[in-house]
Design brief:
The complex is a heterotetramer of chains A (315), B (682), C (221) and D (174). Chain A has 315 residues and is mainly α. Chain A has one domain. Chain A is built from 10 helices and 1 strand; from the N terminus they run H-H-E-H-H-H-H-H-H-H-H. The longest helix of chain B is centred in the middle third of the chain and has 36 residues. Chain B is globular and about 95 Å long. A two-stranded antiparallel ribbon of chain B has the order 1-2. Chain B has a domain of 78 residues. In chain D, helix 2 crosses helix 6. The longest helix of chain D has 18 residues. The termini of chain D are far apart. The chains are: A mainly alpha (315), B mainly alpha (682), C mainly alpha (221), D alpha/beta (174). At the A-B interface, strand 1, helix 3, helix 4, helix 5 and helix 8 of A face helix 15, helix 16, helix 20, strand 3 and helix 22 of B.
Chain lengths: 315, 682, 221, 174
């Protein structure tokens, strides 16, 4: 029984918890720069969270246990998801507990309960948010699964560590058309799932345009803190999932600590670049009409399907 | 009496018989009748479950010949692993539902006599158990008809309402059309076994022996598939489900939707894999396509409903579709001699049958509890029930989680195995199938995502928020203890099936061994009971216990951390944007929740919606009242059933012309008939 | 660069060409269409050059240069001028909505893959796997001509079809004889000019390039 | 598009570190810089504002909108406007609180979690301003909910609002 894998596992979860707000702050910072503004500090998300944790909670009179339970569950599910995606090393004790399909299902749990919490209070906006969220999710999930299927065809497996290992050993994998298409569709889906422009605007103030925000209008204090933290973690998780399945080079394939530290450095570097790309997309595009999202996700599905086909046709 | 599966099942029938004898005696005291009747059925179903579990565990095959029925056509019974498995499915759910019924049926006391309910309920159970036990065509069809007839009367139980009578009639018609198809299919197979002259080949054994020529085999398969689909509610033969299930008493809908549909699945598996045995791959593709269509359309139709039980009925169509998908995959793999993958797909199919029996039973029981409490089936009139019915709401939530395939509950396991089967399809040696089958996986993903949306809607609109209707919950009360016990047991089973899949797969080994000649448990449980690793652990692995414990641990830790800290929770009115005139009518309803999906997938339905301003004279900007009319109809009804109905009416009207009511004319008819017969008999 | 990498590169280019073909089918804006078309031509030229390099068929270089000059620079330029002159920016909505078109496209790809299976069996070239893509590109161009109402988009569809043919030629057998390709290029140029004149006539007759207007030409009542 | 973005990245930031040419004196500007520390002490360097228009003439809203632009740029201090009082720490009220808005204002106040601040922004919000004594208004936020501080001006300039916020938080920290 070796101890290193467990250390790495713990390190990954710790990274998830602390890197996620940092990444969110980085994205915010870049956004401010790209709009020619002075940005708030990189640590702003931590400050928001710590303030929210220290504040009181105001619950609606008719809030049921579901409303109070949801933040904790969403948080727990995100941590669970973070512990199975190979971020630093593929040699994880928990990597066998869940494959990529389970990962998608874990996100589905969080969404399911958030949507229920949105309907729990009985305001019009909460219901609207839940309805829209579930609609978009039900279009995004098939595309998401098609994308990961395309990757898992290349990786000959659906277990994340295995896929990562196979692809990073495969060499010049970027020449594989199937992966290119899968990456394209994965980007579109990640934008939709994490509620970024052009699908949803994370910092809108206008209730009628909200999708995810509308469900959490009623939350306050530590509940809100947990939900916002989980949101940042979701963004981070999608990014590391993309890195693990498309740019795995640098992720350690064993539990040698030195390699793992280099992996950490590489990871931070990659996160920085992904942030730039994300902000370029977000600054360059405008939010879509909600019924144009069908076409957006439809093209994501198209790319994933083409990826799968080109695996059979061209490889 | 020596204790064998056969003797156990016999004693279970004996219990039912005793009940039928006892019923007339106690029927005077209805409350007593309820307790006696349903406790007897509970015992009998439990015995059936035990027999089934035992048979599958041992993999034994025991046959019995009863010298009953027509002269020299004795009844054959056979208890093998397949019938054992479905006996378990039937027995387990009927045990729970019988317990539940002790509480539920009390609701009818004083309103009507429940004697008929008890009698037909027990006959229904017997019918379903005999269907899976029958080993010859004759006895199978008799049991099938017994099941159909009993369920017909159960649907008709509250017969004062006209829609119940219409639904029951529709159900009867479709069931019998299906039965005829099954009869013909058996006829073909039996006829080929030993010519059309003798009757000796009506046993399933004789059919197993015979090699069918391809053409006739296809005919037999198509007939059987059509016939059983009519019972299983495969699109486009599904129309009776959403009519019959809502109007039946909820414990009956639970049984019909949970297990009666599974007997049709049993019939398909029995005929295709056991009786026919060898088939080309396109049969599998055929089944797969029907499964996909049923799954996607079923869930979409369900999303459009605002009647809770109708919604559940349509979602049964969806789940039957998912089961058919796995069966189709299994057939394709079998025809390509990929026995290991075939075993995987078959496990997925059977596992999902068991799962669907459990969670759909649970959901219908929950819906029954809601109906019992509010006397309301329309979700737009409900809301906020979670505060009045904590037990029912939590159990219903478990059902919702299971059916929307969320870990760690059972629905997810079977769908996960199905995905694995899909992802292993590149092993097939046909490039076209390699391209096409993954698209099926995408459709399955669409289905499960839509199912999640569907059950967010079902739970959210029914139990969360405020009451959407006009009048307040004055009479709403929690379900009583028997109903709770029934539901709790089912929920626990859902959880257990979700968290400990490897045990079940080990148990199901003999079935796949018998049907496709291979087993997956050696690899599936290769890493011990905690890790489910079909095929190999590099390929994929899932550990429900660890996932569950992990989430649970994090949630618990976070909760404790945050609650040892002082932090007053203050209750305040909901945030209505400061607008004081917010009413409960402003919440999202079932109709408005599914509006975006209705707009995206609208082309699949025939939707009529129009808004009327009241009063008519009002300016468009300042109406006093808006009336919104929405009618979503099943296109299949318009395309297929309406024409058939019209045609049959037309024909009967023509035939009606021959009726004159004058005896001489009738005599002429018969005289002419005799002449014609004499001419042709030469 | 050894032939396996070349083959991989070529299949990647094939995939991208397929992508551009889909983009052409679903894109609504006129200028974007032109850009995508130019990109398709560029990818085609590159892949032709690679095939020429690997197969040692040096006349392919010339044809790739030809493609580059005609399909990437000249024709887009002409069409661009045309659009400027006729003041077309957004085209009338296509006959079928976008997701449906995509699904039809997917079906077409599968069909062409199924169709070219025997050729893949016969051929021995490193590029044989891209024939299916070439056929699919051709069909998608056709689909574009069918679903779009606007004359200019129909031209682009036509040119995309021609791209598909050229790609098929290069990937199935290392390209057609040079003479043929020269002829084709010339034809395209002439065709483009003729189309241009047509447009002027159409637009002066109907003051619109919506080809549905041509329904008015048929004799009735 | 890319060109625009790059230009934004590399040009000098427009936000006012010390506002010469603006209608405040350098010592006030020093206060703006100082502002950061005030927020730190009470609200963990993060302040979220819910703005309520209690029947104002929208002049104050215009100025609040200006707070978000690259010049004044509230967000660099970690301050932000939010969509729901449940998320907010500070209630920024404008307008003389007309009778129609009175109840809404109370509800908004009661919907906010502790600790919370209320700021009356603009002369109307302070004492009813030019509407003072009208039958239709309640003459200032103070008559409806407890006010922690006022920002005078009709309308107050964005800089004034910033300074006002800083002053109020300063007084609260003591």
């Amino acid at each position: 029984m070796k101890i290193h894998p467990f250390l790495i596992e713990v390190a990954q979860v710790a990274l998830l918890l602390f890197l996620a707000p940092l990444f969110a702050g980085w994205v915010k910072m870049l956004k401010c720069w790209f709009q020619g503004r002075t940005s708030p500090s990189l640590l702003q998300p931590y400050r928001d969270l710590s303030k929210l944790f220290s504040k009181d909670v105001v619950l609606a009179e008719n809030a049921s246990w579901i409303f109070r339970f949801t933040p904790y569950l969403v948080f727990g599910v995100s941590v669970m998801a973070g512990s199975i995606i190979p971020t630093l090393s593929t040699d994880l004790p928990l990597s066998a507990t869940a494959d990529v399909i389970v990962l998608v299902a874990l996100f589905a749990i969080a969404r399911f309960f958030t949507a229920l919490a949105g309907m729990d209070i009985g305001t019009a906006f909460g219901g609207m948010g839940s309805s829209r969220e579930m609609t978009i999710a039900s279009l995004a999930e098939p595309a998401m699964l098609m994308a990961v299927f395309a990757v898992s065809l290349v990786g000959k497996s659906t277990s994340l560590s295995q896929m990562t290992a196979v692809i990073s050993q495969g060499g010049h994998a970027m020449l594989r058309p199937s992966l290119v298409f899968a990456l394209l569709s994965f980007i579109l889906i990640a934008l939709a799932e994490t509620g970024r422009v052009p699908v949803d605007n994370p910092d809108t103030h206008l209730e009628l345009t909200m999708i995810h925000e509308a469900m959490i209008l009623e939350y306050s204090g530590r509940h809100l803190a947990l939900i916002e933290w989980a949101g940042m973690m979701k963004l981070y998780l999608f990014v590391v999932l993309g890195i693990a399945s498309f740019f795995p080079w640098g992720i350690a394939l064993n539990d040698d600590l030195l390699v793992v530290f280099t992996a950490l450095a590489v990871l931070v570097l990659k996160l920085g670049f992904v942030g730039v790309g994300l902000v370029l997309i977000e600054t360059g595009l405008a939010k879509m009409r909600i019924f144009r999202i069908t076409e957006f996700l439809g093209s994501a599905f198209l790319f994933a399907t083409l990826g799968m086909m080109s695996y059979f046709m061209l490889e | 009496m020596v204790l064998t599966p056969v003797s156990i099942i016999a004693s279970s029938f004996a219990v039912i018989l005793a009940l039928l004898v006892l019923t007339p005696i106690v029927s005077r005291n209805q409350r007593l009748l309820i307790i006696v009747g349903f406790s007897f059925t509970t015992i009998s179903s439990f015995l059936a479950t035990a027999a089934g579990v035992w048979t599958v565990a041992n993999g034994t095959i025991s046959q019995v010949v009863i010298p009953l029925g027509l002269p020299d056509l004795p009844f054959h019974l056979r208890l093998d692993v397949l019938s054992g498995f479905f006996l378990t499915v039937v027995g387990l759910l009927s045990t729970f539902v019988s317990l539940y019924s002790i509480g539920y049926v009390n609701g009818f006391l004083g309103r009507r006599s429940i004697t008929s309910l008890v009698v037909f309920y027990s006959l229904f159970l017997v019918g379903m158990q005999l269907v899976v036990l029958a080993d010859d065509a004759l006895f199978f069809l008799i049991a099938w008809e017994l099941m159909a007839a009993a369920s017909y009367f159960l649907v008709l139980f509250e017969d004062e309402r006209v829609e119940n009578r219409r639904a029951a009639f529709l159900y009867l018609v479709v069931a019998h059309v299906g039965a005829i198809a099954i009869l013909l299919s058996f006829g073909i197979m039996a006829g080929l076994a030993t010519g059309f002259s003798g009757f000796q080949s009506y046993t399933f054994d004789a059919m197993r022996e015979t090699e069918l020529p391809a053409g006739l085999a296809t005919a037999a398969f198509l007939l059987a598939f059509f016939g059983f689909s009519a019972k299983a509610g495969v699109i486009p033969l599904h129309v009776w489900l959403p009519e019959a299930h809502p109007v039946a008493p909820s414990n009956i809908s639970a049984l019909m939707s949970g297990v009666m549909l599974k007997t049709a699945i049993y019939g398909m598996v029995r005929v295709i894999f056991d009786l026919i045995g060898v088939f080309p791959w396109w049969w599998g593709a055929f089944v797969l396509v029907f499964g996909l269509v049923s799954a996607v359309l079923g869930v979409l139709y369900a999303l459009m409903q605002s009647d809770l039980k109708r919604l559940l009925a349509y979602s049964s169509v969806e789940n039957i579709g998912i089961i058919l998908i796995s069966i189709g995959l299994c057939m394709i793999f079998t025809s390509f001699d990929q026995s290991l993958l075939a075993a995987l797909a078959m496990i997925a199919a059977l596992y999902h049958s068991l799962n669907h029996a459990m969670f759909k039973g649970l959901l219908f029981m929950g819906a029954g509890a809601v109906l019992h409490a509010t006397h309301e089936r329309n979700m737009d009139e409900m809301g906020g029930l979670i505060r009045f019915m904590p037990w029912t709401s939590s159990l219903f939530l478990i059902g919702c989680l299971s059916i929307s395939a969320l870990p760690p509950f059972n629905g997810f396991v079977s769908e996960w195995i199905t995905y694995q089967a899909f992802l292993l399809s590149p092993a097939l040696s046909s490039p076209l199938l390699n391209l096409l089958i993954p698209l099926g996986a995408a459709l399955l993903a669409l289905t499960s995502a839509l199912a999640a949306a569907l059950f967010v809607k079902a739970f959210g609109v029914t139990f969360l928020g405020h009451r959407r209707g006009h009048h307040a919950h004055d009479h709403v009360h929690e379900a009583d203890w028997f109903m709770r016990i029934g539901m709790v047991l089912t929920a626990v089973t859902c959880f257990g099936l979700g968290v400990f899949p490897t045990f079940l797969i080990n148990w199901m080994d003999p079935i796949t061994e018998y049907l496709v000649g291979d087993t997956i448990s050696s690899s599936a449980a290769g890493f011990g009971w905690m890790w489910l690793t079909p095929i190999s652990h590099e390929r994929a692995s899932y550990s429900a216990p660890v996932v569950f414990l992990g989430i649970f641990a994090v949630v618990a830790i976070t909760y404790l951390l945050l609650h040892t800290r002082s932090g007053a929770i203050r209750r305040a009115p909901l945030w209505d944007c400061g607008f004081e005139k917010v009413t409960n009518r402003m919440q999202y309803t079932a109709t408005s929740f599914s509006m975006p999906l209705r707009r995206i997938f609208g082309f699949l339905f025939s939707i009529k919606e129009h808004v009327r301003l009241l009063p008519e004279t009002a300016h468009r900007a300042f109406p006093e009242q808006l009336q919104y009319h929405l009618r979503v109809r099943d296109r299949f009804w318009i395309w297929i059933y309406q024409p058939i109905a019209d045609a049959s009416f037309w024909v009967s009207r023509r035939i009606g012309r021959m009726q004159h009511g004058r005896i001489q004319i009738y005599l002429i008819y018969s005289f002419v008939t005799i002449i014609v017969l004499l001419i042709f008999s030469k | 660069m050894n032939s396996t990498i070349a083959a991989q590169l070529n299949s990647l280019l094939a995939a991208l060409i397929l992508l551009t073909a889909f983009a052409l089918v679903v894109q609504r804006r006129m200028n974007a269409l032109l850009h995508i078309f130019a990109w398709q031509g560029f990818l085609l030229a590159v892949s032709t050059a690679i095939v020429g390099f690997v197969g040692g068929a040096h006349h392919l270089y010339i044809s790739s240069i030809l493609t580059l000059s005609v399909k990437v620079m000249l024709l887009p330029y002409i069409l661009h001028k045309l659009i400027q002159k006729l003041k077309i920016h957004k085209e009338i909505d296509s006959l079928i909505n976008i997701p449906t078109t995509m699904l039809i496209g997917i079906v077409l790809v599968i069909f062409s893959y199924h169709l070219t299976a025997p050729i893949r069996e016969l051929s021995t070239l490193v590029t044989r796997s891209t024939i299916a893509v070439a056929l699919a590109t051709f069909m998608l161009g056709f689909l574009m001509m069918i679903t779009r109402k606007h004359a200019v988009t129909q031209i682009i569809g036509f040119l995309a079809m021609e791209n598909g043919l050229l790609f098929a030629a290069t990937s199935a057998t290392y390209g057609m004889p040079l003479v043929v390709e020269l002829g084709v290029a010339l034809d395209l140029l002439i065709a483009a000019f003729i189309f241009g004149m047509f447009f002027f006539h159409i637009s002066t007759t109907f003051d619109s390039l919506d080809v549905d207007q041509m329904a008015r030409l048929k004799e009735e009542d | 598009m890319l060109k625009e973005i790059l230009k934004n990245v590399f040009t000098k930031k427009k936000a006012i570190p010390f506002p010469e040419g603006f209608d405040v004196t350098p010592d006030q500007a020093a206060k703006i810089i100082d502002f950061q520390r005030k927020i730190d002490t009470i609200f963990h360097r993060s302040l979220r504002i819910r703005q309520v228009d209690a029947g104002s003439c929208n002049a104050c809203e215009w100025e609040c909108t200006a707070l978000m632009n690259p010049i004044y740029d509230l967000q660099r201090f970690g301050i932000d406007f939010v969509a729901s009082p449940r998320h907010a720490d500070l209630l920024l009220v404008t307008g003389p609180v007309s009778r129609q808005m009175e109840l809404a204002l109370r509800r908004t106040y009661s919907a906010m979690p502790e600790p919370k601040l209320v700021v009356a922004c603009g002369d109307c919000a302070i004492d009813g301003g030019i509407y003072q004594g009208s039958y239709a208004v309640t003459d200032g936020v103070g008559n409806v909910i407890p006010v922690d501080g006022c920002i005078p001006g009709c309308p107050p300039t964005p800089t004034a609002i910033l300074l006002g916020l800083s002053r109020i938080i300063h007084s609260c920290t003591k």
